[in-house]
Each structure stands twice: as structure tokens, then as C-alpha cells.
Amino acid sequence: MLDAVLLNMKSHGRIAECGMVLQYNLKQPEGVHNLFQIVVKRIRMEGFVVVEYSPQYPEYLGMVLPQIREGKIVYVEDIAEGIKSGPAALIELFFGKNVGKQVVAVARE
């Protein structure tokens, strides 16, 4: 994916990188071939860890929840039904087979 992204980045673009779930279980991580584009296009690429932003979470919720309620932000969930579907849903998550947020619905209210 990053190969394609780098080729389509604008000059002075920025890439935020958090997690690489697809790479976690590979015996040998996959390589990137278009890294020179970072130099040519003067792209900034920076990793981050979500827990660094925990203090801002309440402020974020105050901003995003009203927008979700108003339909201004729409999210996608990939729902697996039942506890027995949990292990398969987890495996599919690591292979990128889910769309949006992976959820296992154990019981419906």
C-alpha cells in the first residue's frame, strides 16, 4: 500500500503511520520500493502511538460524538455474530479481510 501512496503524494505531503497489523505475523516483513519518493517530494512520515493522546480523548469525544449523531461522520463496522465467530474474525482482521471496525456481537440488547 505504501508503494502506491508514495507515488501519489503531493510535494511536502505528510503521512501519519499508526500500526501495521498486516505485518505483525509475517515471518519476513514486506518491503517498500518507492522510498526515494520521500526525498524527491520532501514528504514527512511520522509514526505515533495512540496512547500518547489519551489526555485529549475527552475533548475528542466532545467534538466527534455530536457529529456522529448528526450523520456528519459515518463509520463502517464489520460485525461477526456470536462468540464462536470471534476467533475467525480476529484472524481475518490480521489478514485485512475486514472492512472498517471489526466487532464481534456476543449478545444483542
TrEMBL record:
GO molecular function annotation: 2-alkenal reductase [NAD(P)H] activity
InterPro entries assigned: MDR_fam, NAD(P)-bd_dom_sf
Gene3D superfamilies hit by this protein: Medium-chain alcohol dehydrogenases, catalytic domain, NAD(P)-binding Rossmann-like Domain
Transmembrane spans: none
SUPFAM superfamilies referenced in this protein's UniProt entry, alphabetically: NAD(P)-binding Rossmann-fold domains (SSF51735)
Name of the protein this chain belongs to: Alcohol dehydrogenase-like C-terminal domain-containing protein
Organism name: Punica granatum (Pomegranate)
Lineage: Eukaryota, Viridiplantae, Streptophyta, Embryophyta, Tracheophyta
